[in-house]
Each structure stands twice: as structure tokens, then as C-alpha cells.
């Protein structure tokens, strides 16, 4: 379900929330404005020496078993670069050297039955050392720039981001 239906009570006073705008619910009692904003995520595009791109296999739902780009959610008060370094360490067990910013892509992420709006901030980077997957990742593979679009990709925005990156539009 959409978040404007999922959230019923004010987080400040527990009064009833009423939808006022597409992305804002207002508390009937204390007038608190509860905004439904996109949650920031990161992702990173990593190429090997053959020019193939790394994808990781999702260990959990949503989209368990689908191919995803490495990354995750930004923690509160964390910078984009710090969040990518943290996620890559957690998921792949390696250090990353970040290069250019690729783009920002809107998408949705189904979690706890709520279809949350997200914004995916994508960078390119290079890794050193041997990958050891852990955390929410069950495997990894490098795909050629042609074959990558034929895979079961977890999220629609990945196709747009990958195309921008490969065609150099970003
Ligand atoms: Zn309230």
C-alpha cells in the first residue's frame, strides 16, 4: 500500500492523520505536517578490467534472487560517499575508491507492506581485493554491458541508470 494510506496516526501526539496533499498528511489534533518524502538510497557501478559491470544477488525480499546494484539506504546524517563506503564494506568486504556521480533515480521500494518512494543516488567506483559477500547479498557476478539488460533486474530505475552510465549521458 502507499504510505499516505499506511500512516494513520500522528507521530507527535497520536491524533488522526488526514491527507492534505499528495505527499503530506496533517494531524487533525495538533496540526503537525507529516511529509512523505523519498528515502535516499545509494548504489555504485563497479567495472572490472574487461569492462563488465558488477551486480549482486538479493538475499532477502523485496525481489529476493533478483540482480541488484551494490548499495543500500543512507543512514541519518550520513554523507553519500560515506554511505557507499559503508555498504560496500558490509556487502562485499572490500574498500571502494569513488569516481564520478552517475545520477539520481526515482523508484519505489516495498518494505513492511508499504511501497516507499526512494531516490537512488548512483556513483561509479573501483574496488580492490577479493569480494566476500555478506549482509543482504547472496552472490555476485560481472555482466557485459550488453547482457546486463537481459538479467532479472530488481528495480526499474536500474535500467535507466545503467543506460545513462553506459551511454555516457550522466
Ligand atoms: Zn498530532
What does this entry look like structurally?
- The chain is elongated, with a radius of gyration of 18 Å.
- The protein is built from 3 helices and 10 strands.
- The chain has about 170 residues and is of the alpha+beta class.
- The model has no long low-confidence stretch (mean pLDDT about 95).
- The chain folds into 2 domains: about 5-35, no CATH class; about 40-165, Nucleoside Triphosphate Pyrophosphohydrolase, CATH 3.90.79.
- The strands form 3 sheets. Strands 7-4-9-8 form a 4-stranded mixed β-sheet, with helices on both faces.
- Bound molecules: zinc ion.
- Zinc ion (ZN) binds near residues 10, 27, 30 and 32.
Number of strands: 10
CATH class of the largest domain: Alpha Beta
Query: Largest beta sheet: what is the strand line-up?
Result: 7-4-9-8
- The stretches of 5 or more residues where confidence is low (pLDDT under 50) are none
The biggest beta sheet is recorded as: 4 strands, mixed
* Heteromolecules bound: zinc ion
CATH domain topology of the largest domain: Nucleoside Triphosphate Pyrophosphohydrolase
Quaternary structure of the protein: single chain
Return Rg in Å: 18 Å
Summarize the amount of helix as a percent range.
10-25%
Structural category = alpha+beta
Secondary structure tally, helices: 3
CATH superfamily of the largest domain: Nucleoside Triphosphate Pyrophosphohydrolase
Straight-line N-to-C gap: 32 Å
* Percent of residues in beta strands: 35-45%
The CATH architecture designation of the largest domain is Alpha-Beta Complex
- Count the domains: 2
Average residue-wise pLDDT: 96
Amino acid at each position: 500500500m502507499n504510505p499516505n494510506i499506511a500512516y494513520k496516526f500522528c507521530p507527535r501526539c497520536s491524533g488522526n492523520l488526514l491527507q492534505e496533499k499528495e505527499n503530506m498528511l496533517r494531524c487533525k489534533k495538533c496540526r503537525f505536517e507529516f511529509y512523505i518524502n523519498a528515502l535516499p538510497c545509494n548504489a555504485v557501478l563497479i567495472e572490472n578490467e574487461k569492462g563488465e559491470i558488477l551486480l549482486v544477488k538479493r538475499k532477502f525480499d523485496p525481489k529476493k534472487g533478483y540482480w541488484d546494484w551494490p548499495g543500500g539506504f543512507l543512514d541519518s546524517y550520513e554523507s553519500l560517499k560515506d554511505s557507499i563506503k559503508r555498504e560496500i564494506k558490509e556487502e562485499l568486504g572490500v574498500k571502494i575508491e569513488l569516481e564520478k556521480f552517475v545520477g539520481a533515480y526515482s523508484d519505489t521500494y516495498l518494505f513492511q507492506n508499504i511501497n516507499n518512494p526512494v531516490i537512488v543516488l548512483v556513483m561509479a567506483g573501483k574496488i580492490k581485493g577479493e569480494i566476500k559477500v555478506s549482509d543482504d547479498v547472496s552472490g555476485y557476478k560481472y555482466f557485459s554491458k550488453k547482457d546486463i539488460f537481459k538479467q532479472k533486474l530488481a528495480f526499474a530505475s536500474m535500467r535507466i541508470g545503467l543506460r545513462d552510465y553506459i551511454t555516457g549521458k550522466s
